[in-house]
Design a protein that fits this description.
The complex is a heterodimer of chains A (about 290) and B (about 230). Helices cover about 10% and strands about 35% of the residues of chain A. In chain A, a hairpin with a 2-residue loop joins β7 and β8. The longest helix of chain A is centred in the N-terminal third of the chain and has 9 residues. Chain A is elongated, with a radius of gyration of 20 Å. By secondary structure, chain B is of the alpha+beta class. Chain B is built from four helices and 13 strands. Classes of the chains: A mainly beta (about 290), B alpha+beta (about 230).
Chain lengths: ~290, ~230
């Protein structure tokens, strides 16, 4: 039986499939890849990939293979080597017994993906093998992968044909948003400043959310609002009580009570997820018709 | 502990007879929110639960998931869903009067030993045992599941039992913690951080990831609280 044993992992390397959909009414958000496009691209490299892959962070990943295994790697720009020999990124690699794969950070991106021709031998939880780190659910024992974890593989009966390759990620322009659930509670001047201002991706980012630095302090003087807790979707930009703008990501709380000024459009959320700390980000409101 | 300001916007409003006209809002480009109110009200909560139940049995094209909230219903949409057409279909259904859908009934025993129980009793000007008696005196409705897996909001308590949330957030409370604030009793089914008052603990478990469905309480169900013996 094929397997891999993790020999190095960042703090947030997790198993993910496309997500745990249909559980919002039970208070469980969908999780799934932070960069869906890259997750699919890694799978497309294999033609037919098993549904579950590994999402690793800018800390990279290393593992030793047992038995034959084919892998596809994509997302951001990482460096990958097999037994010390560098390969191109993204990569399609056939592995044999005792091969050592090293993935180290490259010039850009927060998340990379490994897809396999075989399925991870773990039980799905509520219909999905995605890890929800916020509540410790699913994936590998509900947690991130650690050194020494040995992940074995089985044939997957329902071979998922590679999803159609999504349109290429839009370039370096502003991140497109739709005005959010509570946009009308923000003064016109604050909304105008939100569009005019460059925010900076902070160090404080994970699968739940990305905090932005509001260098211009446009939300600093916001009065505290008491709102009825309402549904959250990935990409919502909420303003915390202390004025910190936070973009809610795949392991978001299913509902929340902080005001949300805007929501990043789904086509741009992958690109946003890959922005490293220190990156300047600007938001551009678009119409619903444009976003779809 | 500092006494927070009264949270008037969260006070349940009294019953009204005029039908609620909801606002239909896109939530990003892959979801729509049917919001019956911006404040918490009994009428809006009933309307949200009623619409969600109705849509579950007769789901419009393009809707992939339905999740009722406190005063709204979230519709997660497919990539190709037509917002305009969906808006029209929803407005037709919302106009239809429907009686409260029947819900299941649950008895839930609480051990009233939380660290904030005395403070809550004091704020409601009741002796500890009287507060417990009032708290359990009438059945409550499961208003919504949200915030965390299996976390339920139950309400509404009468005006005399309304206290605001705490100023400080407790780092983590365990599954089964019974919380109280804003005219509601909430039950945590997983460990959570909370700004609500901790009044007790229950053995009732509302989240089991190995079960299908994973939760036992559903929005619209009736719960009767009693003191654990």
């Amino acid at each position: 039986m094929s397997a891999i044993t993790i020999t190095r992992a960042g703090p947030l390397a997790t198993l993910q499939d496309t997500g745990r959909f249909g559980m919002l009414a039970h208070g469980v958000s969908a999780s799934g890849p932070m960069d869906r496009r890259a997750f699919h691209a890694a799978g497309a490299l294999l033609g037919t990939a098993a549904p579950t892959g590994i999402e690793f962070t800018s800390a990279g990943l290393a593992f030793t293979a047992e038995g034959p295994l084919r892998i596809g790697c994509a997302g951001g720009q990482f460096r990958v080597s097999v037994n010390g020999n560098p390969r191109e990124w993204p990569a399609r690699i056939g592995l044999n017994e005792s091969d050592v794969v090293e993935i180290t950070p490259g010039p850009s991106g927060n998340y990379g993906y490994l897809r396999f021709n075989l399925e991870c031998d773990i039980a799905p939880v509520l219909g999905s093998r995605s890890t929800n780190l916020a509540v410790g659910l699913g994936g590998w024992k509900g947690r991130a992968l650690h050194i020494g974890d040995r992940l074995s593989f089985v044939d997957h009966a329902a071979a998922t044909a590679a999803s159609p390759v999504a349109a290429p990620a839009p370039g370096d322009g502003p991140v497109r948003v739709l005005w959010g659930l509570h946009a009308d509670l923000f003064e016109t001047a604050v909304r105008a400043a939100f569009v005019r201002t460059a925010f900076v991706v902070s160090q404080n980012l994970d699968r739940m959310g990305v905090r932005l630095t509001d260098t211009a302090g446009i939300f600093r003087t916001r009065p505290r609002l008491m709102l009825v807790s309402d549904a959250i979707v990935p990409g919502d930009i909420q303003i915390l009580g202390d004025g910190t703008p936070t973009v809610l990501m795949r392991d978001h709380q299913p509902t929340g009570g902080y005001p949300r000024i805007a929501t990043i459009v789904s086509a741009d959320l992958d690109r946003f997820a890959q922005m490293r700390p220190g990156t300047e980000v600007r938001f551009q409101p678009v119409s619903l018709e444009h976003a779809r | 502990m500092a006494h927070g300001p009264a949270v008037t916007s969260l006070s349940p409003q009294t019953e009204r007879n005029d039908p609620l006209i909801p606002t239909l809002l896109p939530l990003g480009d892959r979801a729509m929110l049917v919001r019956f109110s911006t404040g918490l009200s009994d009428t809006a909560n009933r309307a949200a639960i009623g619409l969600a139940r109705q849509l579950e049995t007769d789901c419009p094209d393009g809707v992939e998931e339905i999740a009722p909230g406190l005063v709204s219903v979230l519709l997660r949409l497919s990539e190709t869903a037509d917002f305009g057409r969906l808006r029209g279909e929803l407005m037709l259904r919302i106009g239809v009067e429907s009686p409260d859908p029947p819900g299941a009934e649950h008895d839930i025993a609480i051990r009233f030993d939380g660290p904030d129980l005395d403070e809550v009793a004091e704020r409601t000007r009741l002796a500890r045992q009287d507060f417990i008696g009032h708290h359990n005196s009438r059945p409550l409705r499961v208003l919504a599941t949200g915030f965390a897996p299996g976390f339920v909001y139950c309400g509404f308590h009468p005006q005399a039992l309304i206290v605001p949330r705490r100023e400080a957030v407790r780092p983590m409370v365990p599954a089964g913690t019974v919380l109280f604030a804003a005219g509601q009793t909430a039950i945590a089914a997983t460990p959570v951080r909370t700004g609500w008052h901790v009044i007790g603990q229950t053995a009732f478990q509302n989240f089991d990831p190995a079960a299908q469905p994973p939760t036992r309480l559903r929005a619209g169900d009736t719960v009767r609280f009693m003191e654990a013996v």
